[in-house]
Structure formats: structure tokens, C-alpha cells
Amino acid sequence: MREDRELSREEIDAFGAELDALRERTLADLGEADARYIRRVRAVVRACCWSGRLLLLAGWFPPTWLLGTLLLGLGKIIENMELGHNVMHGQYDWMNDPELAGRTYEWDIAGPSDFWRHTHNHIHHTYTNVLGMDDDIGYGVVRLFPEQRWKPFYRWQPLWVTLQALLFQYAVAIQHLRLDKVFKGRISREEVRPLLRQFNAKVGRQWVKDYLVFPLLALALGCNALAVLTGNIVANLIRNLWTFTVIFCGHFTEKAAVFAPSTLEHETRGHWYLRQLKGSSNLQGSRLLHFMTGNLSHQIEHHLYPDVPARRYAAMAREVREIAARYGQTYNTGTMSGQFATVLQRIWRYRLPQAV
Fold first, then answer.
1. Does the entry feature the keyword Aminoacyl-tRNA synthetase, yes or no (predicted)?
2. Residues near 221 by Cβ (< 8 Å), separated by ≥ 6?
């Protein structure tokens, strides 16, 4: 694998200036086309979810259960990735639409949006791939880099990762609770209790909606409540597995790098951009793939520009790749299957203490 060229301080500053200029040009070009796009996305989410739920009311009759489940799962994926995630980054705050306000949007997932805005928007995007500071590195249960200190329970991390993938919305939700620090006595139970109440309330609302209200509605209408219940369960499972795969492919591939906390000392804007580039991985594919990933298939561009509407990343990627090449830096991209294969290799390899 080609080594990245070591940049001088002047080159790093110039690198940062070029990426800043790209950001400013893109923000200056935002307008009605971007507003129409995100409103259409919102309409697609509603159409998929409600058509899926209506089809599930028809019960097991082929192909209504399968089609209804797939449509509901599709709606949940798009809401999670292209709508909720991007809106909560403030990408559409300039529209002044209350339904698309980054600070108040609440998404259709177990974790409260306030939790995500802190652990993801603030912590992860500030300290991307910095060991001991970015909790997204393995989410506390997986060793993915040799720089992570080995612990005995990592021997079983293929099992932990499988459970994490199946229950991904809950894994993301409890991240903000910092239960590891509670168990170690670094955070008191009194401090975490209000967060736990907020977590329980959100999970309760999600369970009531998906696993009680709609099955009871089916029962009241003389429809098959079990078909509706299982359809909701499988739709959430589909969404969990897809988002897990996309997120792990964007952060933990073979060429993704992690950094020591000392990296943050005297870090300039150019250094920050360089860290985002080195710690991220892109996915090659069709426009449909990019849409279904919430454009996190352009994870490099998302880490560089988290507050820029994600629909712009494809166009920005061409210039980012050219800038990276001019400065002798690797632009980590590959097919989804290829990138995920390297993630699985990391999970298997680094489960052992001697793996370096």
C-alpha cells in the first residue's frame, strides 16, 4: 500500500485552504433545488412507511406481507439515513422549516435525537478516530485497530458484533449513557438517571408505536395482528443491519487510520481536514446506493463537511479526490462488498492479543 506523502506546515495550510474554498462555493450555491430535494425525501419516507403499513394489514397473503415489510423497512432506512441523520447535522437549517430543523428533529429510532446530536455531531465529528476520545471506535465492544488496548472479552467480538448489528439502534442509543464509566465509578448513578429516563421514554414510544398500536389497530379492523407485529420487527431488523453495514464500511476498513490524542495538540484546520480524510472510507456504486446510504457512501466528504447537504457530496467528491491526489494523500474508496470484507477481516484478526 502506497504511503501518504508527509506534508509540510505550509502544504497542510494550503490543503486546508483548498477544502475550505470548496465548502464555501458549495454553501453559496444552495437554493431551491436542495429544498425541493429534501422535501421529496420526506414525502418518499411517508409514502413508503404508510404504504408498507397498509399492506401489512392484509396479513400473510402473498406478496402483501413481504412487500409491506420491505416498504416499511425501506422507509425506515431512508428516514434514518438520508432524512434524519442529515437534517440533525443542520444541513437544512437555512430553509427555516420547523420540520427540518436540526436542533429539534426527532427520528424514528430507539435513541433520542438529543443523544445523537451530542455523541455523533459533537464528539465523533470533533474527535474523529482519536483513540480514547471518539467512542465510535468499536463502540466500546469491538477491537478494530491494533492501537486499541486488548481486553479478554475481545476474543468473542464476532459474537458481540453480530448482536450489535441486529440491535444497532439500541447500541447507538446506549452509547450516550456511558454505562462503562458508571460501572467503573467515574460517573455516578445519579448523573446517569435522567438520561436513562429519557432513553426509556424514547424506547417505550417506539415499542408502543410499532409493537402495540399498529398490531392493535389490525386486531380492531379484523386483520392479522401477528402479521403486522412481525412485519414491524423485521422492518426494524432490516434497517438495523443496513445502517450497521454502512457505518462500519465508512469508518473501519483496511485503509482507515486512528490517531493518538497527541494529534490534537496545535491541530490546525488543515490538520483536522487531513485527519478526516485518513480516518474515512468511501463506497463506490450507483445513485441508488448513494441515496440508500444517506450519501454516507461519501463518508470522506461527510467527515470533511458534515453541515453541507449530503446530496452535494457526489459533486464535491470529484474535487476532493483531485486535491488529495495533488497532495499525495490516499483517497480511500472501494465497492461496498470489498470494503465490508476488510471490516470483517479486522473484526476477526484483532480479536486476538497478538494481532498487530
1. no
2. 57
27 in a structural domain: yes
Q: Cα(151)–Cα(47) distance, rounded to whole angstroms?
A: 46
Range of the domain at 279: 9-31+111-349
Residues in the chain: 356
Do 125 and 303 meet the contact criterion of CB atoms below 8 Å apart? yes
Query: Residue 139's pLDDT is what?
Result: 85
26 domain-assigned? yes
147 vs 118: CA distance, rounded Å = 25
Q: pLDDT tens digit string along 303-329?
A: 999 999 999 999 999 999 999 999 999
Distance CA 213, CA 217 (A): 6
Q: How far apart are CA 115 and CA 199, in angstroms?
A: 9
What pLDDT, on a 0 to 100 scale, did the predictor assign at position 327? 97
Q: How far, in Å, CA of 250 to CA of 216, rounded?
A: 39
290: left (phi over 0), alpha (psi -120 to 50) or beta: alpha
pLDDT digits (tens, 9 = 90+) for 214-234: 999 999 999 999 999 999 999
Rounded distance between C-alpha atoms, residue 110 and residue 22, angstroms: 36
